């Protein structure tokens, strides 16, 4: 069911440059969380710190009862096996075909027979839609396929935690949408804890259960998607609205005079757009980590922006949700195939 990552007071600097300080958050077990932030705010450094590739200056990263930065080498090696990591470019070995790339962690970290390795590699290639491409070299495939190959490799050791660095970088909007659906489908299948770093606003709006944002060397906010998507916090609003106006400038933060000039011109961070319905697994199953649409807003007395939770077919998922859950449960009980949530009938 995935494991929780509990970060307490984490601080990292390179020489005199503080990247972020005093970051505390709990990434809930089995849920999908997204970390946003302007370029250079240290999102990649944060992921690398979580997996023990970089050592923080201060603070704790609790994985169960293990405080990762302070583990002796052999325990760190064991704890790292809980993680699968998908780096930006897939980090594939250029001279190996996809099969050998994906088999690599199994051959390196386990004593499995070649027939067992084959079974696992083919299963993961199937999961990411790459069957038939086993013999291809990384140089012969598209960026989207490289990401999926990197994802298959991140999955071979059945991780409890999947860390993903900018899955959308270099991908067109359609491939990004397909990859996002794949993350949702995978999360439903393996129930691991996902933490995805991204710049893509559509990704941030539609896939996560939780969203966090790094800015000015701090974690501005981290919490359920509905909390961030209905937030009044200017930095969050500007980022999610992709506005020029607001506190974030080209070199991180704007000064007071720039902000005053914007306000005189009537520029602002924009109004809150509707909260889109969250993507659901394409095979109709309901993820173990799924929260009912609108539940956080209702529990916290927050009125979501008008038009929230309404899909392309005009259905409001706050009202639709109980019917959907009942229909999917009935289909499973009667041995049928649950319907696709995007279909007019399910
Ligand atoms: N190994 C390193 N040594 C020194 N400085 C580093 C190192 N790794 C990263 N940095 C610096 O840390 C800062 C944050 O980098 P990072 O790549 O984490 O940002 P990011 O938020 O992921 O950016 P982007 O969204 O553009 O990928 C940058 O100023 C970078 O130059």
Supply database-style keywords.
346 residues, alpha/beta, Rossmann fold, six-stranded mixed β-sheet, 12 helices, 36% helix, 19% strand, globular, binds adenosine-5'-triphosphate
Oligomer: single chain
Shape call = globular
Structural class given helices, strands, pairing? alpha/beta
CATH topology of the largest domain: Rossmann fold
Bound molecules: adenosine-5'-triphosphate
Q: Quote the average pLDDT.
A: 87
Domain ABC transporter: 5-241
Protein name: Putative ABC transporter ATP-binding protein
Keywords: ATP-binding, Nucleotide-binding, Transport
GO molecular function: ATP binding; ATP hydrolysis activity
Structure explained in plain terms:
- There is one protein chain.
- This protein has helices at residues 43-50, 73-80, 98-109, 114-127, 143-155, 173-190, 201-206, 225-229, 234-241, 256-264, 295-299, 317-333, and strands at residues 5-14, 17-27, 32-36, 58-63, 66-67, 83-86, 161-165, 193-197, 210-215, 218-224, 248-249, 252-253.
- The protein is α/β, with parallel strands linked by helices and 346 residues long.
- It has two domains: 5-230, Rossmann fold (3-Layer(aba) Sandwich), CATH 3.40.50.300; 234-265, no CATH class.
- The strands form three sheets. Strands 6-7-8-3-9-10 form a six-stranded mixed beta sheet.
- A hairpin with a 2-residue loop joins strand 9 and strand 10.
- The longest helix is centred in the middle third of the chain and has 18 residues, at 173-190.
- The radius of gyration is 21 Å and the shape is globular.
- The two termini are 27 Å apart.
- Bound molecules: adenosine-5'-triphosphate (ATP).
- Adenosine-5'-triphosphate is lined by residues 14, 19, 37, 39-45.
- This is Putative ABC transporter ATP-binding protein.
- InterPro entries: AAA+_ATPase, ABC_transporter-like_ATP-bd, ABC_transporter-like_CS, P-loop_NTPase.
- GO terms for molecular function: ATP binding; ATP hydrolysis activity.
- Keywords: ATP-binding, Nucleotide-binding, Transport.
- Residues 5-241 form the ABC transporter domain.
């Amino acid at each position: 069911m995935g494991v929780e990552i509990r970060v307490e007071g984490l601080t990292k600097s390179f020489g005199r440059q503080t990247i972020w300080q005093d970051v505390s958050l709990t990434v809930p077990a089995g849920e999908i969380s997204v970390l946003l932030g302007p370029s250079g705010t240290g999102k990649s450094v944060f992921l690398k710190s979580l997996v023990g590739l970089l050592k923080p200056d201060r603070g704790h990263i609790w994985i169960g009862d293990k405080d990762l930065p302070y583990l002796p080498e052999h325990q760190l090696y064991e704890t790292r096996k809980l993680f699968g990591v998908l780096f930006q470019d897939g980090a594939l070995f250029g001279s190996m075909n996809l099969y050998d790339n994906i088999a690599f962690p199994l051959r390196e970290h386990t004593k499995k027979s070649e027939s067992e390795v084959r079974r696992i590699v083919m299963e993961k290639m199937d999961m990411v839609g790459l069957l038939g491409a086993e013999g291809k070299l990384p140089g012969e495939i598209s960026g989207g396929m490289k990401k999926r190959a990197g994802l298959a490799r991140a999955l071979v050791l059945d991780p409890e935690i999947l860390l993903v660095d900018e899955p959308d970088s270099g991908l067109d909007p359609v491939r990004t949408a397909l990859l996002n659906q794949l993350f949702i489908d995978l999360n439903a299948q393996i129930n691991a804890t996902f933490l995805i770093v991204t710049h893509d606003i559509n990704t941030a709006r539609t896939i996560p259960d939780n969203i966090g944002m790094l800015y000015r060397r701090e974690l501005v906010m981290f919490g359920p998607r509905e909390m961030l998507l209905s937030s009044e916090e200017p930095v969050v609003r500007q980022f999610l609205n992709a506005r020029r106006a607001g506190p974030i400038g080209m070199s991180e933060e704007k000064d007071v005079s720039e902000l005053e000039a914007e306000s005189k011109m009537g520029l602002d961070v924009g109004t809150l757009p509707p909260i889109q319905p969250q993507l659901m697994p394409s095979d109709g199953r309901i993820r173990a980590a799924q929260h009912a649409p609108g539940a956080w807003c209702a529990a916290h007395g927050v009125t979501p922006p008008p038009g929230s939770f309404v899909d392309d077919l005009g259905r409001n998922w706050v009202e639709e949700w109980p019917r959907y859950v009942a229909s999917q449960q009935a289909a499973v009980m009667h041995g049928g195939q649950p319907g696709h949530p995007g279909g007019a009938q399910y």
